[in-house]
Amino acid sequence: EQLGSLGALVCDMEAETITASDPGILENLKLCPALTGAQQDALNAVVLSGGTAYGDPLSWDLQTLQNLGPLLLALNQTTLSLVAKAVREAFGRSIAAAYS
């Protein structure tokens, strides 16, 4: 409930606050035009906890990657490597198709 009222103010949060917050904070982080390196690390920690609406990266499918939206750009190689190769490839094809 409080996250909804915070909106894009989460863009100024320290990494420690992000990791200590409810996993729903990810939806607010989508509003941020850019995240610092520390915020990106915190985002990855939250995602890797598996307690988000997106679940464990091992279970992600094409729809999950699409739902992550701009957060996908902040995911590190460790997190992305957990996503099945076929899913990553399908996502790449969907991006290419959208821009062709």
TrEMBL record:
UniProt GO BP = cell-matrix adhesion
- What's a Pfam family in this record? Mesothelin
One cellular component GO annotation, for this chain's record?
Answer: cell surface
Cell compartment(s), UniProt: Membrane
Question: Which domain of life does the UniProt lineage start with?
Answer: Eukaryota
Keywords attached to this entry:
Cell adhesion, Glycoprotein, Membrane, Signal
Transmembrane residue ranges: none
- Xref: InterPro entries: Mesothelin (IPR010335), Stereocilin-rel (IPR026664)
Q: Which family does it belong to?
A: Belongs to the mesothelin family.
Would you tell me the protein name for this molecule? Mesothelin-like
Taxonomic classification, please?
A: Eukaryota, Metazoa, Chordata, Craniata, Vertebrata
